[in-house]
Amino acid sequence: MRRWGWFAWVLAIGLATVLWNRSDSPDLLRDTDTAVLLDTIRKNDNPWRWFVSDWPLFNHFYRPISTLTFELDRALWDGNAAGFGATNAALALLSIVLCYGVAAQLAESRAFGAAAATLFALWHGPGIPGWLATAAGWLVWLSAVAGLWRRNAAAAVLALAVGLWAVDELVPLSSPKGAVLSWIPGRTASSMTVFCLAAMACHAAWVRRAGFRAPRPSGPLDPPATRNTEPDPSRSAPTWPLWLGSLLFLALALGCYEQAVMLPGVLLGATLALRWRGWRAPWWPHAAHWALLAVYIAVRLRFVPLEASGYQEQQFRSGPGVAVAIFDYVLPTATLVWQSLRSLDLGWLLVFSGMLPSAVAQFGLQSSALARLLLARGPAAWAWALSTLAFLPMAWLKPFPHYDYWPASLRAAFAVGLWLLWWRLAVTAASHRAIPAPPRPDPAPGSLPRP
After folding, report:
1. For residues 204 and 161, what is the distance between their CA atoms, to the nearest angstrom?
2. CB proximity list for 435: less than 8 A, separation 6 or greater
3. Count of domains forming the chain
4. What is the CA radius of gyration of the chain?
5. Phi, psi torsion values for 213, nearest 5 degrees
6. Residue 194: exposure state from Cβ atoms within 10 A (0-12, 13-18, ≥19)
7. CA–CA separation, 284 and 208 (whole Å)
8. Which domain range does residue 121 map to?
């Protein structure tokens, strides 16, 4: 497809998904948090107040930018729930489109970006149909059987390990639909996601334009460089607007939701991901990202009380739940092993039940999949790392679906990258084993005599 073809596809699938799943029920405005929030806004009638105070629920959060979306809806729609639902849908659509931009930039493939955005869009609805997940699971097992039949045991095991993880990734950690389309306060996360993805897209484009790709050995399929080779016209375009854009969107994201404090680290991770693929760019722009984060922290301390509110004390958590939430992103089967080990008081019954052996086997498969993922140095590796980093601070809070919204946009790229890796391993497993060439005599027949 041409340059704008993939974008048109993403726009169409995103628009169809959010329109089909958007909510215009009057219950949107009857939620307790929503009712109190809108009532406070109506009484104050001063949109600029939220830049110098706690946000309308007064539970010690600094969210002036996302609060402006509520102010705008109140001015445009007032008591019309359909209008509020339309704003939620618009933010979701922007997130889907920007997911395409980020994935396409970091993977250097518009087709890859379109696949990631399509999966992310489907997560806004009922999700992947059960029959499709079942069919994908059968494909994974058939590839392993074919690999064993061809006596490619190593490739078969790797294909099985990566494929099983890829099947699990078809289902999101928690559905974004209920968080951002049918719950008004959930737009704090969706508006933050819009600005986070915009900052990531700007920054990735800046790295690829302001930097250069490290030279690599030419392969047999690489076209030769000639004096008639046309240069990339985008290389001559100014790069400072992209850098300023990343700063602007970082500031807006920080003003939407506290999870955005991870964005400077994610931008640094995006730079490392592109550096992993051979791109080299200056490091100094990252200093501005961290300096802006420091300014945000200072402003927040100035206008929001430092001590935890009653709501925050209820939401904070510690103990095993934190580790489980993190392992769900890093290596989900580690939770199975941990739960099995906690049941060791059953003694030998645990072994006979198959719980521990099954957990250890799954953990081994997923660990080998992760090792192969990192060795592949492909887009799935950076998406896995960045989605985990984006979610990290939310592990210490009791779970809500909108905590996973920004990470889910990156997790979609991880799922697509896993399927690409599985396909390469499956083809290798199902193919005939390579026949080694006979040793070359020295000197070769017909060669000139050497002293």
Report:
1. 31
2. none
3. 2
4. 25
5. -90, 130
6. buried
7. 15
8. 1-127+174-214+238-315
Cβ atoms of 155 and 434 within 8 Å: the answer is: no
Closest CA to 379 of 91, 94, 6, 99: 99
Q: Does one domain contain both 187 and 336?
A: no
Q: Is residue 223 part of a domain?
A: no
Give the contacts of 377 (CB within 8 A, at least 6 positions apart): 276, 277
Which amino acid is it at 202?
A: C
**pTM score, two decimals?**
0.89
Q: What is the tens place of the pLDDT at every residue in 55-93?
A: 999 999 999 999 999 999 998 988 889 999 999 999 999
Strand, helix or coil for residue 288: helix
Output the six-digit token pair for 132.
């499709």
Q: How far apart are the first and last CA of the chain?
A: 58
Same domain, 139 and 30: no
Cα distance between residue 359 and residue 304, in whole Å = 46
Classify residue 439: in a domain, yes or no: no
Q: Are 2 and 114 in contact (CB under 8 A)?
A: no
Distance between CA 289 and CA 260 in Å, rounded? 12
At 228 the pLDDT is 47
Asked whether 211 and 282 are in contact (CB, 8 A), the reply is yes
